[in-house]
Amino acid sequence: MTIDEKEYLHLGCLLEEIFPESRIQMISTMINPANVARAGEFGRSGEYVFFVMLGGSSPLRVRLNREWVSSRGRTHTGNIRWDMLKRSGTNAERRHSPGGFYPIYIDPATGKIEQLGDPLPPNVLDAPIKEGLYPLLPIRQNGTEGNWQWSTSTFMERMKKGRVRVGGNSERGFTVYILKDGEYSKVTNGDFNIIGRGINNEIIVDDNATEYVMAVPGDIWKIAPHDSTQYGSRLIGNIFSNKRFTFPKSLYAVKDCIYFFTANKPKALVVDFFAGSGTTLHAVNLLNEEDGGHRRCIIVTNNEVSDAEANALTAKSYKPGDEEWEKLGIARYVTWPRTICSIEGHDVNGNPLKGNYIGSDLAMADGFKANAAYFKLGFLDKNMVALGRQFKEMLPTLWMKASAFGPCPNIAEDNIPDMLILPENRFAVLTCETVYSQFETEVEKYPEIKTIYIVTDSEAGYREMIQPFEGKDTYQLYRDYLDNFRINTGR
Questions:
Q1: pTM for the complete prediction?
Q2: Using an 8 Å Cβ cutoff, are 92 and 59 in contact?
Q3: What are phi and psi of 324, to 5 degrees?
Q4: Is 161 exposed, middle or buried (0-12, 13-18, 19+ CB in 10 A)?
């Protein structure tokens, strides 16, 4: 959720009340580098993003452009990080690890490690002299005796892998650096490319030359494509010939928020109950295009008109429900047209969209390999439902619950079947228990059917009927389900 500084405190308290078992984090993000002036106040250039994380959900370490990470500090640059071999913090004294107090013999002219000495006996501080070599011991800056993090055997083993390098010189002193397991795994995982080896066989990577880094971002975002004016208002202005929606979010800001939690979930289902201009669905399609995913998206919105349009329509004696009123509602006037145009790659007048999506060679005019379906939610008469008279209206809901395979099925208004076998959509429905035997036989013919709906008020009967459908998702639909509003899971 995003919100400005006027209400973020209220929203934060509300989220804590509603989701007490969750982990909640608030991100600060810049959405307008131009800074909108406010009389008597500081100008506004940012807003806040709340992430509510349930269960084991957490932001992923993902591939990011370098503007996401700081250019200062060794731990935040996105470069590979070399740590000092000399232990710091707790257990850093010689007595804590006597075997870690040994000399490292370095050629002062080249900085090459020539050999390691044995751990020195207790109370011995001077390393044996090796002609022409500099003996380096883990002596701390305050002159006290410390220890190395690795034993001699571990040191030699890991130096062979390129995990040891030497910095400094004989005049100001040498420092030995190491790649710990976590950093070395970034090399073995391919996050960094090895482009050479140093004098101590240390790996050299092209971290400073790469455009991208693998990282989990911080909690302050200052990302150019998150500019809501440039990549929100002007982007949908590329679709509409007139201003139909105020303050749309940046397409790329929404895409990034989704990416941090679905980068490893290419078949995720993304749901937005406040669709607005339709940025979320647009962002999911773009993310799928970038990484080859097959994420699905459901967006929900009412069809309200703006205050200005409502006043103008009322002055002309129109009211909600009239065609002239409904066609200017946000769902029909903004959300759905944007969805169609972004998928097909044209504006509302049929002209190809201009420009490319940032960070890729994908032209907006090329659109997306995606499908979309529009459904209008309405109220049904519960008595008619109980009599099976509005099954046609409920069929799209069953189709979506069964994962929306194939085109949404349709039936004649006056043709309420005793059963419906839909292998293309991978689900089947039994509406009349008297034909159960035939229903079971038909379902067995199509192993691709994974979802079974059975309409019955009998719990015992339902349990008996689902026995042959082991491994399938089965659901009991009560005949008067609008009255008790429940769809129970059989398994």
A1: 0.72
A2: no
A3: -60, -30
A4: middle
